[in-house]
Write a structure and sequence with these properties.
Elements: E1 11-14, H1 17-29, E2 34-39, H2 44-59, E3 64-69, H3 74-79, E4 87-92, E5 95-101, H4 105-117
Parallel strand pairs: 1-3, 2-3
Antiparallel strand pairs: 2-4, 4-5
InterPro entries: Thioredoxin-like_sf, Thioredoxin_domain, Thioredoxin_H-type-like
Domain Thioredoxin: 1-117
Protein name: Thioredoxin h
């Protein structure tokens, strides 16, 4: 008997500046760090990183993972000075704290670990 697992993406695709702004406010209110993957459908290294980004989102559940297509949401890409894809922007309390350009899974994981460890978590 086959079991088909339905996987629900933990990565949120940002489709407008308004969506970006509301997600950032939500993350601030929830004290969630943000990892934003700035990508483009025509950029193969970016597209190749998508499954890895999904895996990270499943691993780090208290972090908000956002996917931003630079062609769809140019205003946000310009604000963070994204000039090459993929670019990963790490944010805390609504402010950029780190930025990584290029498809480097090990380095991205290391930077996310660092981001999370610097984020105090209240355990009741």
């Amino acid at each position: 008997m086959e079991h088909h697992q339905i996987s629900i993406s933990k990565v949120v695709k940002v489709d407008s500046k308004q969506t970006w702004d509301s997600l950032v406010i939500q993350a601030i209110n929830q004290s969630s760090p943000i990892v934003a993957h700035f990508t483009a459908s025509w950029c193969i290294p970016s597209v190749v990183m998508n499954p890895f980004f999904e895996e990270l989102a499943s691993t780090y559940k208290d972090t908000m993972f956002l996917l931003v297509d630079v062609d769809d949401v140019q205003e946000v890409a310009s604000k963070y000075e994204v000039k090459a894809m993929p670019t990963f922007v790490l944010m805390k309390e609504g402010a950029q704290v780190d930025k990584l350009i290029g498809a480097n899974p090990d380095e991205i994981r290391k930077r996310i670990e660092s981001l999370i460890q610097s984020n105090p978590i209240c355990v009741a």
